[in-house]
Specification:
Strand order of the largest sheet: 1-2-3-4
Distance between the termini: 35 Å
Radius of gyration: 14 Å
Shape: elongated
Oligomer: single chain
Order of helices and strands: EEEEHH
Helix content: 25-40%
Structural class: alpha+beta
Largest sheet: 4 strands, antiparallel
Number of helices: 2
């Protein structure tokens, strides 16, 4: 996952969710209205107007809490019915 020419890599996080290994890359791009963002190899992404929450949410995406894992499992079970 290579940043575009106008993006600067802020951090990279490796972890797992839904039983698969994932990598989250957080970037800064001053040309966007919300310059801070993270993108995951699973396809999820999120943008922020400030740098405050980028690292915390990227880390939590790759290292979900027990409550997050239970929510994911419940969503998968309800989706298959």
């Amino acid at each position: 996952m290579k940043p575009q020419t106008n993006e600067f890599r802020v951090g990279t996080y490796h972890g797992r969710h839904d039983g698969r290994p994932v990598t989250v890359t957080s970037t800064r791009d001053d040309t966007r209205p919300e310059p801070y963002a993270w993108t995951c190899t699973c396809g999820a992404s999120q943008t922020f107007p400030t740098e405050d929450c980028v690292d915390r949410t990227a880390w939590r995406h790759t290292h979900p809490t027990l409550l997050d894992r239970l929510r994911q499992k419940a969503a998968r079970l309800l989706r298959t019915r």
